[in-house]
Design a protein that fits this description.
This protein is an all-alpha fold. The protein has a single domain, classed as Farnesyl Diphosphate Synthase (Orthogonal Bundle), CATH 1.10.600. Helix content is 71%, strand content 1%. The protein is built from 15 helices and two strands. It has a two-stranded antiparallel sheet. A hairpin with a 2-residue loop joins strand 1 and strand 2. Helix 7 packs antiparallel against helix 9, helix 8 runs antiparallel to helix 9 and helix 14 runs antiparallel to helix 15. The model has no long low-confidence stretch (mean pLDDT 93).
Amino acid sequence: MDGARYLNDRKQMVDAELDRLLGHCATTPPELHEALRYCVFAGGKRIRPILALAAAEALGGRPDDVVREACALELIHTYTLVHDDLPSMDDDDFRRGRPTMHTVYGEAIAILAGDALQAEAFAVLAGSTRHRPEKLLQVIHMLAEACGPRGIVGGQVVDILSEGKTVSRETLEYIHHHKTGCLITASVMLGALLASTATTPARYLDALKTYGDAIGLAFQITDDILDVTGTSETMGKTAGVDQKRGKATYPSIIGLEEARIAQKRLYHKALTALDVFQEEADPLRHIARVIVERSS
């Protein structure tokens, strides 16, 4: 399989659907509509919606049947980035090589745009006509759990409260699993649940859940490593921010080399989970490699 071509083709599919979705958003007030497009089309890799497409394909589903719903993941991911960059949070001026939302549109618009993106994500799922209501309800519940106090928000709160403190590895793993890993696992499972049928073996869904959990944590460990080893130019955002803010990271708690060992261990755990599949899961295998080998 040509992994790079797969990612490019699926990214184009996701971008086209995002363009359609935002085109249907309320265009009044125009300042909000402009701000939404600014942050959504800021050059993201679309890893989360592509994970959903790849998981669906691993179960024999068609990407066209889940791409609209998968875009809800990108809307939520973008909202978290917009809010994460705010002065009251990480106070970042650059994201993906461009000025962050609040530096261009102001803090108030950035907050409201993030709120709008999260609401629109759930409107997209609730308004889907391609899937049975009971499946959509299951997906909506799962995604809401991943976003709220038992997911991203909970992880972010513990992350903030841990700044400048020495925390245990268990607390560190809690932060990383919740603030980053939950949405990645939900991305895999969104595609899996929507593509599954009554005859889909439970072990396939279990394997995809294990894969999602492993690459979700590996993704954040990679971010931690890049904050130490990367440059602002290659990352598209300010390097070394975690160190300056005294954030709990794998390199700061267990050291850079141990962080790399943990990253590799999770990568192999993800691949092993996919052993129940054959070549239909090759896109998922390629994405796992991209996550741990990326430079931004």
